[in-house]
What does this fold into?
Amino acid sequence: MSISGVAVENVKHFVWRSSFPLACLALSLVMTSSAVQSKPTASQTKSNLSSRTTGGAGVSQSVARALPLGTKVANHGFRDRLFKGKLSADVANGEKLLLAGKYAEAQEAFRQGINKNSKDTAAVTGMGLALVLQFKLDAADEKFAQALKLDSKMPMAHVGQALSKLYRLQTSNMNVLQQRNGMLSSAEASCRTALRLDPKLAEAYIVLGQVQKEQGRLNEARSSLSQAIGMDSQYGTAFVQRGLIELKTGDIAQAISDFSEAISLKSSNAAAHYGLGLAYLKQGQLDDAQKSLNTSISLNKNSAPAHIAMGDVYRLQGNRVAAVNEYQKAISIKAESEEAYLRMSDIREMRGDLELALADVRSGLALAPNSVDLHRRAADIALKLEKMDDAMKEYSLVLQYQPGDAAAVKGMTRALVLKAQKDADGAFFLSNNYESAEGLIQQAIQMNPNDMELRLADAKLRAMSGKPVDLTQLGTPTNDAERIAFAEAALAQFKYQEAGQAMQTVIANCTTAEQAFSVGDMALMIRDLDSAEAAYKRASSFGSGEKADSQDVSARATRSLYRVSQARDKAQQELTMAKDLASKKQYPSAIDKFRNAAYLNPRQSQAHLGLAETLEKLFKNKAPSMREAALHYRAYVSLEPNMPEKQQEKFAKKADKCDEIAYKIEQGKPPSKLSAVFAPFGTFASKVENGIKELVK
It folds into this structure.
């Protein structure tokens, strides 16, 4: 007996992410038995309606295996009936239809039973289950509440309420998503109540495990699923769900064991074959992964996650055309499959087509506007495209959905720094920008106190706001992500040697072309052209990479190195034009060109020197400009390590003098016109200036 097309269509809407937990969960209620195929026996219809622990309606103690989406109903199910006791003809029919996966028809049958007896607890509970499995959550909640009003000790009604709360989290409604933690806590409480009423209710442990998984409590989720398995070792759904959690925790061997056990219980378990394919994929056993995923897809062609996983296999094999085809199949099944959009974006980006990559993400956001992952990816790509405002907008949306999101805070900080370096308002943040960003980063640090990248991002932020920062106080980076963050913070302080050393270590640690390209892209984004060039050259040395064949690697390396060369050429052009404008005393335009040259290639020492000197000439009475000039004088010295000591002292004094002027302006003591006249002549001129002031008095 097969699940009807209607049932498949209903259940497939619950396939949300690559683990499709709720789909398996929904199908765990679609049990199979001889009761589905034949009328209840006389002994079954004569027994009293009771729960396992109370006198009310309940679920039978035996538990059936979950059915994967699109597979056949087992002929040897472990559940004789969904409800125990004497049932009305309408409820018995509704039970039969519900177990067959015909939810709409079951709903109508239970409705007829309620019309004849509004206090029929089995009918009310059954209708709630039929409604929740159709995703009619408000109506389902009404029925579960009604059932509990009739019998407050009805465990399955509590489980139904928990299931409804889980399903509500699959919405794109922001009001619901903002209540995520509270809803998960409430769902957990419902499961706990059900288990207090019936400690052997395996379904309660299954739902509880899913709640804990959504809460990130993976060890507890695994324990709950193990409890369900302990109550019935034939419960295939529990094995599959436990295996998916083990994949997340890195226990791949045990995950393979659980998926294999589920398959041994039922060879046509598509979910188990899918999980096994994921496990092989994680181990790099691509042929075995492809075989398992092919089996899963043959059993259920409407599984978006299985097509996404198959796309991953093809991508790792270097067959990107086939990979994109699988991702598009996933989207045709479930239009809001965010993972498919993200994977296609990866491929476009890998080929160097950032605009098309961003277009893929935008397509996903049109259907899943509240997807945090898609907004974060859109922000990351926009940042690489130097669309700073777009990037900050996307990061802000991520932080609305997930306050304290560490990745978004790091991205936001990077965008603000790059924007400050590029924009005409100079290298320092406006106070409102700084305060807003500082608030976000401090919140993130509180939520992730051991995240050194966040502390380095904060250091970078403070450096760009003109505050002194000692990076040595933050500790030594211990991994490549921290080294890149350290390099960014060092660059913000114009400590090029320290930044270069950190990036050299990261580049040397790359073991695949893809890793080296990622480092190169990051270096190019933060305008560390020397590191970008080194990373791209290392990428080209790998030939065939993990996700690309040698031809792709070579072509991408050539494109990337050309981008570095373009950046250098553009920076040189801007510098040449800046010098020409400065020589003609067109200082405002010269400042813009010097600043852009320094932004395009921060290691271009003459750009820093020209900017500092021009700022000092034009904006002697503006504190921000004087502080910026001081900063660029020091950058110039840092970039010229072979400069004679006297020259170093000269520019160091210039920087100190600019800071002193800025301080006096901030204290309400701006330099006089006489100061501007005599400034070029040094200490003696200062004495002459003071003498003139005394004579005037």
